[in-house]
Every structure is written in C-alpha cells, then in structure tokens.
Design goal:
3-stranded antiparallel sheet, 22% strand, 8 strands
C-alpha cells in the first residue's frame, strides 16, 4: 500500500475515533437527569396542601423506597419506569394519549444519602431534596412548561406536577 493510501486510512481511523468519543461523551452527558428547569421544593418534606382537593385521585405507592403520592384522575393509565444509573435511580412518570410517544413528565430521583452528598459536591445544580430519611434522598425533576417533544396533553400534565408533589410522602 502506498504512503498516500496509508495516510488516507489514518485520517479515516482518526475520524472514527473522534465520532465514537463524541458519542460516548453524549451518552454520558444524557445520564445526568437534571437538564430541565427544576422547581426545587423549599420544604424538605412536602405535605398535602389544604387547597388541593385529591378526592378521586389515585395513589401511587412504591414500597421499596417508601414513597406515596397521588395522581389526578386524568393520569389514569400512567406508567412508572425505573431507570438505573450508576449513582442513582429514577422513577419516571409518564402519561400520554393513544398514539402519542411517551415521555417522562416528571421523575423522582432516588439517591442514598452518600450518593446525594457526592452528587451535590460534583454537580452543584442538583436540586434540593423533597424528602429524605436514613436510607434515601428523593429529588423531583420536572419542567412545568413541558418540552418541545410533549403533546398539548402532556404539557397540560406537566403543569399539574407541583400539585401532585404536594401529596408526596415517605411511608417508611
């Protein structure tokens, strides 16, 4: 093979390495769940508000993490997906109409106290917890404006998240 041919292959290899390195970086960057605007709670443990009537709301319970919250009737058929990351887990809450792409309307991010402390040091944008106990620190991640990918139905559900979070409580 000529020197010119080898030089071309070297450039192709370099280009492939750069593209792969960028893809790995992008995948890692997407692992950080707090990329949206977040409205952290001023209170470490939200309680049900006297102004939110939760009559007829359905209760979501997760016994593993000791979490309970209520969802309005329009959230009927919601799905919760557990996503495992290296230093935390998220409970991704999704509701959408038939034929729509599902997206995470809001997520509860579950840390151990040590993981949260380490994340707080390395990522100063981590929101304040909405609740904590000896086992877990819970952070809510959401954007009440929805997102460009959300349908009108999903954007309306995103606006309900602050009310939903007022019903959040730890059960253990």
């Amino acid at each position: 093979m000529s020197k010119k041919g080898m030089g071309m292959w070297l450039w192709v290899i370099i280009a492939v390495v750069v593209v792969v390195a960028y893809a790995v970086f992008a995948a890692y960057a997407d692992m950080w769940p707090f990329s949206q605007s977040v409205a952290p709670s001023a209170s470490p443990s939200p309680t049900a508000s006297a102004t939110v009537d939760t009559t007829g709301w359905q209760t979501y319970t997760n016994t593993q993490y000791g979490i309970e919250l209520k969802l309005p009737p329009i959230w009927s058929g919601y799905q919760v997906t557990v996503i495992q990351y290296p230093n935390w887990k998220t409970l991704c809450f999704d509701v959408h109409q038939a034929g729509e792409q599902g997206y995470c309307i809001f997520q509860l991010v579950i840390f151990t106290p040590a993981q949260y402390q380490a994340t707080e040091v390395s990522q100063p944008t981590v929101p304040a917890p909405i609740a904590r106990n000896d086992s877990y620190v819970i952070v809510a991640d959401y954007n009440t404006e929805g997102g460009g990918q959300f349908s009108d139905f999903q954007t309306a559900r995103a606006k309900e998240v602050p009310e939903i979070l007022t019903t959040f409580k730890l059960t253990k």
